[in-house]
Amino acid sequence: SIEGDQIIEDTITYNWHPFGPQGPERYVHTAFDTEGRVHSQLAKEYWFTICSDFYETHYQYDGNGWMVNQEVRRKPYEDSAWRNFERIQYERNSNGHDTLLVLSKWDEGAEIWIPHLKRETSYNADGNIVSQSQIRTNIRNVWQFEYRFTCSYHSSGLLKGRNWSRILFGTNLVINDLKEVFSYDVFDQLSLKEEFQRGFQTPWFKMNRQEFTYNGEGNVVEHITSILETYDIPNMIPHRKQTYFYDSDQDLRRHNTYFWLENDWRVKQGFRYHYNTELGVKNDENTLIPSVQLNPNPAQDRLWIKGLNSGSQASIIILDLHGRLALKQEI
């Protein structure tokens, strides 16, 4: 809907409670500015059917349109006062990639923002992540290393591997205990992701394998995850399968999730998607913009967009699952 000079999007998430009443789980009211950026959000969270908390988020952008500040206020359902809750600040390079993220919590007693998490990220000349490290405060408010990973790439720019270093549980020892390896098909679509782990002074073993199958339009139609059977038996066994079904316009229509039980795939949950065909995005000539295709869909590290005319002016705006701006680019 449109309110004044803002575009409004209302999203309601429903949850089925097997032992209680069914009802909404989360309601989000999102306002976009005239540039298509998220301006503010009002979220209501429910416990069963009772509204429990309100969260209000405001976003700030720099002159280039990149998000630099995000502040959240919280109000319990039975309280009339809004209180500062959480703040995220970004420092970015000339390409708009965040090089430093600082998450702070509001201290009611001191009435100041106190940093709780810092994440630093570096990039190569192609804009791909080279390394990322994160620290956060522990219960004694002392900064503590949480993780670091480094990335390697193929000559084509596709992600080849990611190596993680983390703290060995129960110690202050940092070890390289996780690595991910990515493989692609002839169309440069992610076809296989393998995860290897190891303990302190132990050999690597495969812990997880994910296989992706695509249709002719580059959209994922099947995603199968296999896991290690036991630490003593190094066999990979099926664990979860996700299937995706599209219509002739490559719009997602169904999404099913299965789990491997008693040597067979058993459906766990399914989603159906419906689209309002009466609503369309229109350009200045009042004609519908040609259909745009995204692949792979869902996307992980790389996304291709097809269907935009090279001579037309358009903006690409990508939001994460929390409604935060992940990418804004003029084309």
Q: Shape, please?
A: globular
Mean pLDDT: 80
Oligomer type: single chain
Helix content: under 10%
Note the total helix count: 0
Order of helices and strands: EEEEEEEEEEEEEEEEEEEEEEE
User: Which strand-content bin applies to the residues?
Assistant: over 45%
Task: Note the main sheet.
Answer: 19 strands, antiparallel
Stretches where pLDDT is under 50 for at least 5 consecutive residues are 278-291, 308-313
In terms of topology, how is this protein built?
Layout: E1 2-3, E2 6-15, E3 23-32, E4 38-47, E5 50-61, E6 67-76, E7 83-92, E8 98-107, E9 112-123, E10 129-137, E11 143-153, E12 159-167, E13 174-184, E14 190-197, E15 205-214, E16 220-228, E17 236-246, E18 252-261, E19 264-272, E20 293-295, E21 304-306, E22 315-319, E23 325-330
Explain how this protein is built:
This protein is globular. It has strands spanning 2-3, 6-15, 23-32, 38-47, 50-61, 67-76, 83-92, 98-107, 112-123, 129-137, 143-153, 159-167, 174-184, 190-197, 205-214, 220-228, 236-246, 252-261, 264-272, 293-295, 304-306, 315-319, 325-330. The protein is built from no helices and 23 strands. The chain is 0% helix and 60% strand. The two termini are 26 Å apart. The model is unreliable at 278-291 and 308-313 (pLDDT under 50). The strands form 3 sheets. The chain has a 19-stranded antiparallel β-sheet, with no helix packed on it. It has 331 residues and is an all-beta fold.
